[in-house]
Amino acid sequence: MRYLLPLLFAALPASAQVYAVPVAYCEGRLVAEQFETAVTPGAMGRADYSVRLHNTSNATLHVRLQFVADALNKPVGEQALAARGRRTVSLGYAMNMPGRAPLRGHQVADALRVSCR
Known about the structure:
The protein is mainly beta. Helix content is 11%, strand content 45%. The chain is built from 2 helices and 8 strands. A hairpin with a 4-residue loop joins strand 2 and strand 3 (30-40). The longest helix has 8 residues, at 4-11. The radius of gyration is 16 Å and the shape is elongated.
């Protein structure tokens, strides 16, 4: 049993790093409230990136997100965010690579491009 415990903890993701500096897009109608990096350590681990969006307007907002970082499973197409709504959106993930640190804090924010219609 004591040998299983380290294996169990190795499979769980490490605590996430949250960058909670709001960034406004689309003339302030959309605010990225926080960016998050959740790293699962190990040779088969990965870094998952996400953003929490807030529609500050009184109308549904149609947005297109482009994550320009080296990542897999990036958001595709247009998304609708309800009036005054909030949603956490996955930006994709990157596999752990020797000698390459995952994106953190402002690096995730800098890699996000947003367009609204």
